[in-house]
Write the structure tokens for this entry.
Amino acid sequence: MSDVQISSGNKYFLKWVAAICRGAGPLSLPAMLMMVFSPYASAAPLSLQGAEAIALRQNPGLGALTQKIAELRHKAVAVAQLPDPHLGLGAVNLPINSFSMNRQQMSMLSVGLSQTFPSFGKLGLEGQQAGMEAQMANFTMRGQAAELVLLLRRAWLQALYTEDAVATVRHQEQLEAESVQAALALYRSAQGSQAEVLRAQLARDSLANDITKLQAEQASDLAQIAQILNLPEPPSIEKQWPNLPPPPTLAEMETRLSGQPLLRTAQEQTRVAQMGVQIAKRGYWPEVTVSVSYGQDFYPGSPNWLS
């Protein structure tokens, strides 16, 4: 077996674990090891790419829009079809004193079928309108997804910036603490004034307040990340800065402007409204219903009837 180098701190840690295990008994050794090493077995910090995937997958607003798009696409197919035909069954000229079908002429049982035809072209226009509404909902979902990713990236970068700012200000606080000690030493040796000591202490306390403010801002950013990801508590995020793609140039942004989701949504809203005007104009024309029925007459010698 190869030799393993163990530092003095690790030796004391292992002795402490062994002492706990001896006191708890041999049967609880696995449980004790899980309890001791559980912080080291925690999940890895969340990356920005993984957070974006969670946000797009678990956001309830995006999920509702996904279902709305599916509904509108099925509706576009359904509204373009003819209405369902109606089947009618009934009794005609039935005497209520005897309810007999063969004692009076024209007493009969009938079966009929009717079909309604809307005004010409109206069904096709309604199907196109529903398809446009589905496309509009799709653009709306894409726009909300982009806004969600933007909010997540902004909160993520702010949290990382605040983390670095806290470390920098904390280092400055340590330097100011040394300045306070130096000012006190000069004051005690009658080489400095009390005002210099107070000035150094105020500078140190100001940096301490800055650290508190930065920590509060970081907690707010992490809480916003948890809200975007729909998590019960702020997650542990990676401390390294993410590798984001460079921003597009002005010419590229102008080229992509026509495909911007919110702009496309507004365009689809205009098209849906224009299609609604055409559908309303088709409503000026009447609908036509065609019906046919057959009657069975049970009176002796009477013929059957067709309507």
Remarks:
- The helical segments are 8-24, 29-37, 48-58, 60-78, 122-188, 194-228, 250-256, 261-282.
- Residues 43-306 form a domain with the Outer membrane efflux proteins (OEP) fold (CATH 1.20.1600.10).
